[in-house]
Amino acid sequence: MAYSNVLVGAGATPATITVRRIGVEDLKIALSRGLDDFLAMPTHAIFLCLFYPLAGLVLARLAFGYSVLPLIFPLASGFALVGPFAALGLYELSRRREAGLDVNATHAFDVMQSSSIGAIAALGALFLVIFGVWLAVANAIYVADFGYAPPASIGAFLRDVFTTSAGWNLIVVGNGVGLLFAAAVLTIGVVSFPLLLDHDVGAAVALKTSIEAVVRNPVTMALWGLIVAALLVLASLPAFLGLAVVLPVLGHATWHLYRRTVDADGTPRPEVTPRPHRDRSGADFPVNLLPWKR
Length: 294
Known about the structure:
The chain is mainly alpha-helical. It has one domain. The protein is 67% helix and 1% strand. It contains 14 helices and two strands. The protein has helices at residues 2-8, 24-40, 42-49, 51-65, 72-77, 79-86, 88-98, 117-146, 154-163, 165-189, 192-198, 203-216, 218-236, 243-261; strands at residues 18-19, 262-263. It has a two-stranded antiparallel sheet. α6 packs parallel to α10 (165-189), α7 (88-98) crosses α14 (243-261) and α13 packs antiparallel against α14 (243-261). It starts with a helix and ends in a 31-residue tail after the last strand.
């Protein structure tokens, strides 16, 4: 029964979900509301997403230190492949703000007590596998063009990439394959995680709904993917630091895009087990510095 709930949720009958047609105006509204959420809860969002730029800097340093320089770009671009899963806390804050509930930062972790957590974890594992496969494929493309020998230096690596036919082949093929991975993640993840956070429908239903949303709105969803990619590239240029703003805005906006795309009001809501209450102490730092409610 537990496995069944992970796949199809808690309902006794198959979930009835309506996928709406959306347009460019819906994307504008989702982005506007995502920015509004970020401005209303800025410290919450930065607190939740600060590990992204920090992780990017750490990964870059490891790449330089362990001679895996060719994987820096795949690692950086791979953030987008796990973003839908990692933004769960942002979806929850947007959901609570929309419902007029307390948006204290600690509620971002309520998903851990949700009855949908099994399905969310299953989908999260799928996204991590896709990320790992992308790194393996990117490395294989590099090896096919340049062999197994590591770059002699950063300068030599850049010269090889931008001034040789093998380098241009790496750029074209690598970006083409990366686009396929990004399209696959967009298709299965554009609404699946927000749907699981909002309704206990199971991983299989969430995947099906996300695919249906893309099939029903191919041009609009393709434009959304381009917007996300462009903003992530711009935010990554100053040593990934811009991601501390762009990622939370996109995370909140994704929630609002889901709300405009999917109508699942007839399906069961997740059951959330209340966390035990305890007095705040120094162990709660820095969360105890974020008391704002909206």
